[in-house]
Write the structure tokens for this entry.
Amino acid sequence: MAEHRLKLPLSEKAVRALGLGDTAYITGTFVTARDEAHMHAMHAKKEGKPVPFEFKDSAVFHCGPIAREIGKGKWEIVAAGPTTSTRMNSLEPEFLRTFRPRAIIGKGGMSRPTVDAMREVGAVYLAITGGAAVVAARGIERVTAVHWLEELGMPEALWVLEAKDFGPMTVGIDAHGNSIFERVDAQVKDNVGRIKKTLGIE
């Protein structure tokens, strides 16, 4: 397994070079977006309205951060734990094809339709450890902007973050249709089957 220090924006070539199980850190500007933000962005796009962040070639973090206002219009991220990505399963394939981010950051993996969309557009899923929100926040240097805060509230808003060596993260889904989560699930099912057979359980 290799370690990668990635700089945003990401190229398709750089993303397709990442291997399943590799470790990654990212430096640059990326954005948080949960289900409400996904829907808000896609609705704006369909209505021909501007979307306030250029998702293309960037990274989208499934995260509802806790932020503290440190001055008029100035914020800092106190905690940045990942949201379980399965919440976005029904939204992510269309979002990927519409906005073409290069990386999705979250926990728990995503469904096969999303894996297929990642392979199609050239994107990866970077898994970050849950339950370490304060540690994750240490890689975020500053908040450069926040959008849709009034409409969606703090957890669902688009928080634009500038980070340095944000991570570590694991390439849980690569840009070639491979998923660690599917492999683990298949292995578990195989193990359960063998145990049942050994015990004589149908």
